[in-house]
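Human
Can I borrow your eye for a moment on a structure tokenisation matter? Give me a protein, with the fold worked out from its sequence. Write it directly below this note and I will take it from there.

Assistant
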Amino acid sequence: MDEEKVEESGQRRKEALIPLTEALLGKMLDQNVKYFDSHYIQERSQEIIEKTILKLKFNSEDVQKAKRAFLDVLIDGARKHTYSFKDDEKAAKAALDVFRKKKESKQTLMKDDINEKDAAKAVLEKLERFSSNNPKDKTEERAVNCEKVCQFIVKSIFDKKLILKDEEVVNDAIELDNQLSLSIPAMAHFQELIDQLYHSLDESYMRANEVNWGCPRHEIRLSQIDQRLKK
């Protein structure tokens, strides 16, 4: 997920949780909890979420079949799209293309932009040496000689007969996938809720202080504090 989509997702999550934050504050008020009980509430709620997810057992035969079918597809994809030097080449060319477009549009080029451009050029030069079987040193020679061996290992590991045959490991993987499928979105929403809760509590505390002192905190005078302490 790119940065823009992450930001949009976060904004949607924030807006969706505003009513829940208000309901949570009302619940805390009803229970007459203390201001700093919010820290315990966060820790205990997270503990309940995590232990609830661990407690769940997805024993449905339909779920197992669906997950196995999806794993089958993933293995096919892994064999078809195994990472290689071509991916390094593609990434380097993309980085140079970004640099070129920034330069053509007369954008201010930062030091990081220059470094990324230089790194991308170095990658392409190295891959050109690999392609022509002309490594510049022992490290590159090892990379060239070992690449086919590494690719063989990966292709051999991503084998349906090998992976799907191990029932226990596959079932553990399916169980973990089920847990993560629920845990990741649940914890993302939980963290946003807690962030909003702390923000609301801080705002409420500051407003209460303004009412108490008759002015914002930055306008409180030392004489006012002194008078309060002498009471």
Remarks:
- The chain has nine helices and no strands.
- The radius of gyration is 28 Å.
